[in-house]
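Preliminary data (for renewal application), protoporphyrin IX containing FE complex.
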Amino acid sequence: MTRTMTAPPTLAVPHWHLAPPGARSGIGEAADDGPAAPVALVSGRRLRPLGAYSDSLRFVTHQGDTLFAAAARSAGTPGGDALHFDLAGGPGPAVVLFDPAHIKTLMTADESVAPSATHQSPLAPIVGRQSVLTSIGERHKQQRALLLPRFHGRSVANYQAGIERATEDGLAAWPVGKPVALADIAQRITLDVIMSAVFGLPHPDEASDAERRMRKEILRLLRLSTTPVATLSQVVNMRYEDPVGLLKLILSRVDRTIYRVLSERRAQGEAGLRDDILSLLLSARDTEGNPLSDTEIRDELMTLVLAGHETTANTVAWTFERLTRHPGVYRTARRAAANDDEAYLEALLNESMRVRPVVPIVARELLAPFDFSGSTVGPDVIALVSILLLHHRDDLYPDPFAFAPERFLGVRVNPYELMPFGGGIRRCLGAPLAMAELRTVVGTILRRVELRTHESPAEKPRHRNVTMIPGRGGVVIADSIT
Ligand code: HEM
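Predicted structure:
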């Protein structure tokens, strides 16, 4: 991608997602000369617990608006290519990065000085502390090495038939002529795919009673997590490593069903071993020959099921939320899908994940001082990579708020300029599976479903745990399905 600089920013709307296609973000301006001075996003001014909590809540619920406004304010000032803040009740002092050079420094740093901070994320109390997502160091390396082969190359090809079957089922259940939240339809598809990868179920109908109950409880957990009470519970849980309050109550129901599935499979012994991830975990041994405990397996399963389906489903929903508001792009995409134009489909998915990254932020812990363009940051600071801001830099993406898949045609993507799957040794484990699902689900919908385009305002992004999802689930109306 080329860097070009033009006029000052014109993002004159209260919410970033309503910015017109020609608006500039202001992010990516060269700094004036002068000593680098970190720019405060939230100052230490408000030290009263209530003020701190309202800042935390605003950051959780309006992350994009907060960051875009702060980044535009500081753009072009010395040190303005990073934002600093400190939210009491949150992770403590933090720096927000959105410059590819800073991000590369961070992502390629040794894990001993910049480990993942996922164990402090809102997901940690839910998935537990022993999973590939939340562990660090040697344990993370082992967990990742164990699981990686299941999410790469040939293994993903093995899931293809399941992805196609789940997509067919999803289309069959889609009512014509009625508004539907595409996230719901896509979620059923991606949940089926990940459940069969994890639990080896050829079809949901063939699941045992315990497995069906577990699926139901997981769906209930997801539905509850969209409510305002859940957002509040998320803020409350930021202070604790283990779940408390409402979250604890909800999780204990889900956990009971997971442990029931585990004991069912353990009881089946050799006969219970299938070609699935649960079997892999049940037969795994650590360096001393000990099997994984039930809690360790539970944490891993919960991680894979949660990380593995909601993200993908909401990427499908965002893709069509954008397409139905851009009739010209939608027509081009349908033609491309009908002609099996894989390059266009890939560019479309890149553009969709650029403008609406479902995981808008990833975190690392700075255990040593880091130099970001002359500002020394750390130790003991959380570095948050704002994927959302990175993806809207004027210098990398001219007209950053426009939805233009062709910008990615014939372009070799730089991994520090487009990073919907994060980066470094913590890059999304399931990215190849996610891409396979997205190609099939988005491609099939483009080919077989005629969607009504419309001019209603963009859906408001809603922040749920670590994800940014379409506020209404990506509402679309199918005029016909063939
Ligand atoms: C479009 C869909 C998806 C998106 C946008 C996405 C995004 C991400 C991101 C941003 C991270 C954090 C990376 C970092 O810290 O640098 C991550 C981690 C992870 N994702 Fe995904 N993901 C998707 C689908 C999946 C799927 C299908 C799975 C399947 C199991 C999965 C499993 C994981 C796991 C296990 C991790 C933790 C990796 C580690 O810490 O080593 N994700 N994902």
